Amino acid sequence: MKAYLQVLSTGTADCPPSVILHFDSQRYMINCGEGTQRLCMQQKVRFSKLKTILFTRTHWDCIGGTPGMLLTLSDVGIRNMRLLGGENLTHAIISTRHFVYRNTMAVDTVEFTKDSGSYRDENLRITAVQVYPDNFERSLPYEWSAPPTSPNRSNSSSPSNSAAASPVPKHRDSPVTGSKRSSDELSPSTSTPVAAVEDEHPPKSDTEIRKMILEGMFNLSKSNGINAHPLANKKVKRDPRAPVPQTDVDMIEAARTVETSHTCGGAPVKLVNGRFMDLPRTTPNTSAISYICQSADYVGKFNKEAAVALGVKPGKLFGDLVNGKSVQTQSGDTVHPHQVISGGRPGRVFMVVDCPSTDYVSGVVSAKDFERFQGTGSDKLTAACIVHLGGHSVLSHPEYKAWMQRFGPETQHIIANQEYCSQKLIWRSQAQSCYKLSALDSNIFPLPYYNNTPTHVLSTDLQGLGVKADLAESMMTYLLEPSTGLERSEVIPPLELFKDHSSLKNSPKDYLREYYSLAMKAQEEIAKEKAFGPTEVPGKDVVLTALGTGSSHPSKYRNVSATIVETPKHGTFLLDTGEGTYGQMFRQFGGYRMSADQANSVDDRIKNLKGIFISHLHADHHLGIVTLIDRWNQFRTADTDPLYLIAPLKFNSFLQELSDTQDFGYQNVRYIQSEDIVHWRQLQHDHRYRIARPALMSLFETSGFKDIQTVDVIHCPWAYGISMTHKDGWKIVYSGDTRPSQNLVEAGQGATVLLHEATFEDDMEEEALKKRHSTTKEAIMVGEGMEAKHTLLTHFSQRYPKIPRFDAEGKSTIIGICFDLMSVRFGEIEYLAKFLPALEVLYSPQSDEAKEGEEEDNDAELKILQKQSQ
Ligand SMILES: [Zn+2]
C-alpha cells in the first residue's frame, strides 16, 4: 500500500491552504476554500477518488470552494461524499440549497463537537481536536428585517418571470427566531425538538431538519442513479443515447412543480424536495479543529514457510492468520499470528494543525490529545508529519514554538501559510496567456501581480529550535506508507514573467513569431489612429476589467463570471462575483497595500466598492461574494459609503443564512431586491418599485448612477440583466446569462457598452437554445438591436482556447472579446477589433493552447464538465 499526503495549495490570496491525502481506496481533502477546484484542474489532480473532505473551520476561507466542488464532483460521477467538520458545517452547506443540488450524488455531514471528536474508516483513525479562542463568547444572531411587504405582493409578479412572486422568508420573523434566546438554546447540539402543527408530522430537532434539507439537496434518486450517469459506464462502451444529468434549469423547473408542505419551528413552511425549507437559526462558532490522523496499523510480513512448518494448511487459514486470528492445525495445535508474522507496527501519525491566530495558541498547546504523539506515551509514538496552517504571529509565539519542539527532531513540520509561502502565480496557464496577450497592449493586458519572496522568513522565526521544518510547495508530498519522507518530484519551480517579448519574437514556433508580428502591426495601426486624436466616447475613462470570462466551472484559462467597472471619482461596481473573484482582483490590481504611496492595490478597489449586482442564482456567478463583502467590511470605517447589493430574493436568504455561521459583515450591506427594480416596474411606477426607490436613490448618490434597472431575461427562474446609466452620460448594460432578450434590447437602448454572454459558438445554436444561452451571432444582434456603441462578448463555454469567430464587417456596434484580466477603458474598446488578426493566430489550431485543449477534450472528467455548461 502506498499512502501519502500532498500539499495542494500553500495558501495564496487566490486559494487558501489545502491538503490531499492519497490512499489506494480513496482520497481525502483537508479544506476546500475558493480556488481549490481550479487548482486541481491546473495541477491535474483528479477528482474521481475523492470521497471525504475535512474542514478545520466552518469559515468561508475553509469551505468557500465546497459548493462548486460538490457540483463538479457529482458531474464527474462521484456518488457519495462525506464532509467532516465543526459545528454549523451542515448549516453552511445547506444555506446554498437554492443553487447547489444534484440527484446523482448523496452527501453526508459529520459535525465534531468538543466532546465527540473521532472518526474511523478503512484507512484512517481521525481525532478532531477542537480549540476555542481565548475569551470565546457566543454572540446572538443578527435580526434581519424582512423586505417590506404589501397585501398585493404575492399577486404582483412579473409577467415573464413568476419568481418575483416568491414568498418573503418566514423564518426571520417567525416565533422561533424573533425572540432573543440564550446561547445554550441556540446551540444545535442542545436544541429542543420543535413543535409540530399536526400530529402526523413528528417533531424534529434543528439537526434533523438540517439533515433532511441536505438530503433534499443531494440524493441518489432512482431515476438518476449510477446507471444514468455518463461516467458510470465509461469502462463499457457508452450508449450515446444514455441520459445525461439534468441541467440546473430543468431541475429548478421540476422542483418548483413538486411542492410539499412541511413544518419548521412550529410555523408552516414550503418544502420543495427538502430544499426550499427555511433554516433554523444558529450563531457563529469560531472554534478551529486540528486533525490527528493515523493510518491503519501495518500488520507485518507473513512468513509462509514458517506457517507450513507449524502445520498450517495453505488457504483460508493463512488469511485468518494475516487478519490477526489464531488457527488450529489438523493435528490440533494452535498457531498464533505472532508466530508467523513479523515486523508489524502501528500506523503512521500525521496532523494538520489549524491555529488561526495567537488567541488559539494556549488552546492548541494545552490540548491533551497531542501529547501522546510527542513520544510521552508508553508506545513512544511520535507524529511523522505535521502541517501547520498558522502564520507568522503563531509560529513566532514562544509557547507554540516550545510545543512544536516537544514533538522531537524526527517529526517533519510543513508550513502552509501565505505569510511564509509567498504570492506565487498559481494560475500558470492564465499567467502565460496574460504574458502573450501583453504583447498586444501592456495596459489592456497587464501581467498579473505576483511575488516569489515570502513576507516572513521561516528559518528566522524557528531559529535554534532544532526542528525539521519546510515550507509547503504545491504538489509537494510527504510519503506515509510504506516508508516516510518528503518528496518534491512533482513540484514546479515558481513562474517568473518578463515584460520583454523577445521570447515571442524569437520563438522557434512559427505561430508565435507570426502572432508577434501581427501584434506589432496592430500597435502601429492603433498609434496611427490615436494620432488623429481620441474619439469622444462618453465615460471614456471608465475602466472595465474582466475578472472571469468562462462559464459553468472555473478552468485553467478562464475563471467563472465576474466583471468590475471602475468610475473615476465614483468607485467600483461588480457585475457578478464568481468563485475566486477576490483572487482575480488581487492578481490584476496588485498585492495588499504595503505603504501609503502604493495607491494601486486590490485594497483600494475593495474599499471603494459601491455596489454588486448578482444576475442569477447559478453557482458560477456569485460564490466569490462572501470573501468580497468580508474584505470590504474589514476596511469599513465610519466614513465608508454603504455597499449595495442588487440580487434576486433567494440570494439574500443565502447570505443571511450563511451569516448565522460566520460574521462577514453582511448586516452592513444594503440589499435591493432585483425583482423590485425590474425595468417595467419602474415604467409603471409599480408599488414595489416605489418601496425600493429610497435605497436606489442613496445608491445613486454614492455611485454617480442616475438610473439602474434590472431586466428579466430568459435563462432560469430569477435571472436578470441590468442597465445602468451614469450621470456623466454613459450607460452600461450587462446581460447575465440569457437567450437573446427583447426586454434587454429595450431597456439597453443607446448603451455605451453592452457586456453580453456568448456561451456558444454559432454552430451550437441548438445547445444554446436547450441551455438558454446565446451564441456569438445572437449576442451581436442584441448589441445592434439596442444600438450599443460597443458590444463586449464574455461567458464563453470552457472549451477554451478557441476564440469566438465573428464577422465584424458592416456591424453597427463595435465588437470586442473579453479575456480574464483584460482591463479596457471605454475610450479604448474600439481598438480591440485591431487585435483580432493576431488573436486568431494565437489561438489557431497549431497553438500550444489549442493542443492542450485537444488533450483536455479527450479527458473523461473534463469532457463531462465541458458538457455541463450552464
Ligand atoms: Zn446561468
Automatic annotation (TrEMBL):
Record keyword Nuclease present: yes
Stretches that traverse the bilayer: none
EC assignment: 3.1.26.11
CDD domains attached to this UniProt entry: RNaseZ_ELAC1_ELAC2-C-term-like_MBL-fold (cd07718)
Gene Ontology annotations of biological process type: mitochondrial tRNA 3'-end processing
Low complexity bias: start-end ranges: 145-167
A GO CC term assigned to this protein in UniProt: mitochondrion
Stretch list, region Disordered: 143-205, 847-870
Co-factor requirement: Zn(2+)
Top-rank taxon, per record: Eukaryota
UniProt-recorded Gene Ontology molecular function terms: 3'-tRNA processing endoribonuclease activity; metal ion binding
Zinc recorded as keyword: yes
Gene3D superfamilies in the record: Ribonuclease Z/Hydroxyacylglutathione hydrolase-like (3.60.15.10)
Top EC category: hydrolase
Record's keyword terms, sorted: Endonuclease, Hydrolase, Metal-binding, Nuclease, tRNA processing, Zinc
Domain Metallo-beta-lactamase: 559-786
Comp. bias intervals (Polar residues): 176-193
UniProt-listed InterPro entries: Metallo-B-lactamas, RibonucZ/Hydroxyglut_hydro, RNZ2-like, tRNase_Z_dom
Catalytic activity: Endonucleolytic cleavage of RNA, removing extra 3' nucleotides from tRNA precursor, generating 3' termini of tRNAs. A 3'-hydroxy group is left at the tRNA terminus and a 5'-phosphoryl group is left at the trailer molecule
Record PANTHER family: ZINC PHOSPHODIESTERASE ELAC PROTEIN 2
Homology family: Belongs to the RNase Z family.
Protein name, as recorded: ribonuclease Z
UniProt organism field: Linnemannia elongata AG-77
